[in-house]
Structure to design on (214 residues):
């Protein structure tokens, strides 16, 4: 702690930054962010921790981590934007709904369904519920997105997944946007104790600068 204070006094923040996220964001959005942060602040060691979205909220509340990735933060919450993606329909290539340019959420959830959760509380079931709908016929429930894609390819059912989870090999699959787009927003939130730390402020300043450039 004395060393960290000395670095901060010299204008060079250091120490440890504990960052929690769910695996999908660690593998897609965060790698370039963390590479740039390490280049700008080599004295700050980033310690990653994988967790579900609900676990991240608990970790932040308990000050077990300094920052965490949160989904769809409300307007009044102090966060730093990371990015966004959209929910998309994944269907067997020969499915009747695969012939269109898009698919209505109500049509999709009425089909035999493969529910993938990604280990998070925000998934196809919650998206349907937010729209006043329900999954009519869940044939399989899996945690891994790759498992859902494989089951759809085998004609077990259709799925609703975030576009960041789509596989490179889409043979046998048809990916369609929803007729009324539904997006997911990612942001970083700080724990109450760490919000004012030099390491957290350095990370947030970098992200805000990148956001202004974009």
């Amino acid at each position: 702690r004395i060393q960290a204070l000395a670095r901060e006094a010299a204008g060079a923040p250091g120490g440890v930054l504990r960052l929690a996220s769910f695996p999908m964001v660690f593998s897609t959005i965060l790698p370039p962010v963390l590479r740039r942060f390490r280049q700008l602040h080599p004295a700050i060691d980033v310690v990653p921790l994988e967790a579900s979205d609900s676990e991240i909220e608990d970790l932040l509340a308990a000050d077990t981590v300094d920052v965490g990735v949160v989904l769809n933060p409300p307007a009044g919450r102090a966060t730093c934007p990371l990015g966004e993606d959209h929910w998309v329909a994944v269907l067997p290539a020969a499915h009747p709904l695969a012939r269109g340019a898009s698919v209505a959420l109500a049509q999709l959830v009425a089909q035999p369904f493969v529910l993938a959760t990604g280990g998070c509380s925000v998934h196809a079931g919650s998206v349907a519920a937010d729209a006043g709908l329900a999954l009519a016929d869940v044939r399989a429930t899996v945690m891994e997105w790759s498992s859902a894609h494989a089951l759809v390819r085998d004609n077990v059912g259709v799925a609703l997944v975030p576009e960041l989870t789509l596989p490179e090999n889409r043979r046998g699959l048809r990916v369609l946007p929803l007729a009324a787009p539904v997006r997911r927003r990612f942001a970083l939130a700080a724990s109450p104790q760490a919000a004012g730390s030099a390491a957290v402020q350095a990370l947030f300043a970098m992200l805000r600068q990148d956001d202004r450039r974009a």
Observations:
- The chain is about 35% helix and 30% strand.
